Amino acid sequence: MLILVINKLVNMETYYEKQKLNQWWIKLSIFIPFLIVFWGVITGKTQGENGTSMLIASVVLGFVAVLFYYTNLETRIDTEGITIRFFPFQRVYYYVRWDEINSATVRNYKPIREYGGWGLRYSFTHGKAYNVAGTVGLQLVLKSGKKFLIGTQKGEDLRAFLLKLQNEKGLTCINQTT
Q: CATH code for 73-175?
């Protein structure tokens, strides 16, 4: 949060967004199995073979919980290009320069129908998607023909930033349709 505030004060030519997996249904899908395992430990139903199963379930559940906790999508857009990373699945940032982009459009999309859900997804017709929640994203079509979409929780802020960038830098690849 502090980085975002500093960016706004110091460098007005940078857009930054960090998104986390905060949906209630994800938390619930981890919490319910945790309760089941915890109940087994409390009631003593973890003896013998069942105990081994509960131990394995606890380890897997702990790993999944930590994975979801640390998963985030970072997007940084400036006058040079767009940088994204879907951590921990991408350890290295992916960078695209503006001169490699044929079109950039903030649009509404259907995550399940177009990409099969949220996360780091791939569709044969729509290309790659980096999204954690919602139905608004920045659709990019590269000059090479590659397509990908970057999800956002701040669609109006992103539209405003891209409009400002388009006006100030004359970037013709930015489209203002939804």
A: 2.30.29
